[in-house]
Amino acid sequence: MSTPALSFIARRAAAGAAACIAALALGGCAGPREEADVPAALGLGGRVVTLPTPRQRLVHLALQEWALWGRARWDSAADTWDGPAGAGTPRREHMADAASRVLLYWQVLRGDTFVAEGAQYPDGSLVAWSAVFISYLMKSAGVPDAVFPASALHWHYIKAVHDGPSPAGFEALDAARTPPAVGDLICAPREGTAQRVTRFEQLAGDAGAGGWHCDLVVEVGPAALGAIGGNVRNTVAWSRVPLSADGLLLPSPQRPWLVVLRNHLP
């Protein structure tokens, strides 16, 4: 390299050093940033990725699981199925890879002491896992049990939220008066429970104990919403739920919606 070029580089380096020294005297030279000044982001290959909020993580996880199971769609009012074009047959719980996924949901809920036999009946069929699926989403999204009491039974967390609503967590509201939003859970009694529990007010006592089903709302449109749930006819399915002109859930024989668990997480 020529002498003039080296001289130019030396002058630039000296100028930079002088500027840094002057800035240091004022407390402003660029250096390691204080932790409090670093945004909640990760640098990946020069890109900045903003970390999703807990509510966003719930929705992302539900969509991810739905994709893994084959993107089945169910119309909860018409009781009809519509799979995506070219996507193949959705996974069902009796398939080996799908059954392994269900066992993962159980293990995340129960911890390392869980054994596979705990998710099976003596004939080898799987124990109902729709509440386990919701609990898996909550735990995987980092929602603590103090905010959402994860359980293998929907009624347990519905009742806990109803009796102890949290402005920073979840609140049980009457589905007949509450338009659902993305990130909420929508819940309906099932089978014999649906015969005796027909009003939200009945949750105040023990009459609501029994079979329930809850889905996580992932999309809200003008006439219907989309909600993802587990163990919907032995798969993870996107349910189309019709809405009234006021945005309220329209109950059907398959899903007599009674409860909206309002999500107050950011």
Task: Describe the main β-sheet briefly.
Answer: 8 strands, mixed
Distance between the termini: 58 Å
Number of alpha- plus pi-helical segments? 6
Percent helix: 25-40%
Count of β-strands: 10
Strand content: 15-25%
Strand order across the biggest sheet? 4-3-9-8-7-6-10-5
Instruction: Indicate the structural class.
Output: alpha+beta
Rounded to an integer, what's the Rg over CA atoms?
Answer: 26 Å
**How many distinct domains?**
1
Determine the mean pLDDT: 85
Give the SSE string.
HEEHEEHHHEEHEEEE
Low-confidence stretches: 1-38
Given the C-alpha coordinates, what overall shape results? globular
Write up what this structure looks like.
- It holds the Pfam family DUF2272.
- This protein is an alpha+beta fold and 266 residues long.
- It has one domain.
- It is built from six helices and ten strands; from the N terminus they run αββαββαααββαββββ.
- The strands form two sheets. Strands 4-3-9-8-7-6-10-5 form an eight-stranded mixed beta sheet.
- Helix 3 crosses helix 4.
- The longest helix is centred in the first third of the chain and has 23 residues.
- It is globular.
- The chain starts with a helix and ends with a strand.
- The N terminus is likely disordered.
